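Each record in this resource describes a single protein on a pair of labelled lines. The shape at a given residue is found from the number at the same position. The record below illustrates this layout:

***
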Amino acid sequence: MSKLELLLVAVCVCLLGVVVQAQQVDAAFGVGGVKSTSAANADFANGYSPQSVGGGTFLGFSGDFLFPKHYGIEGEVFWRAHQNVYNPVISGGQPFRPLFWDFNGIYERNFAKRVGVELLAGIGEESNRFYQPFVTCGFTSCTNYTSVGHFMGDFGGGLRLYATPHFFIRPEARVYLVRNNFEFSSGHAERFSVSLGYTFGGPQ
């Protein structure tokens, strides 16, 4: 587990103490895709690889706690549903899977009875798992992959469409700005997805 992942766990534990103060709690599951610079347009001059981090279907979970005045905190994780192949022209390539997680400040407000908008920004990590044909065991677990993580910033928004007073559909977009993302074709990526969610406590 990386230092950023440990930090996220610590933050989540601290948040448990303030959840009861939340005016609204939302949880959602999403499906979408990630788009990034293509291999043909990779920034070779600055050391980036021709491999794109985009493509394929991404799945994820998100949740937020909103307080009075429409502000709150939000966290989410999205990962590629199926493994991709890294640099397939060399020795058949290596299976890998990118994962994005982040922790954000969020502003959410309804501007109609069942329509709301949310804006958010924060920090997180792009964690890339490169799979191997053998298992490696550590102190706490055994895995068949190695992880390469990069600090990132993110920002984006979504449109909440309530089918009922509590169930909503949320088209959403995120921009990821990844530091030292040299395993891939650029230092940025965009995610476009749709989430199905449930609001506890009633829309703002």
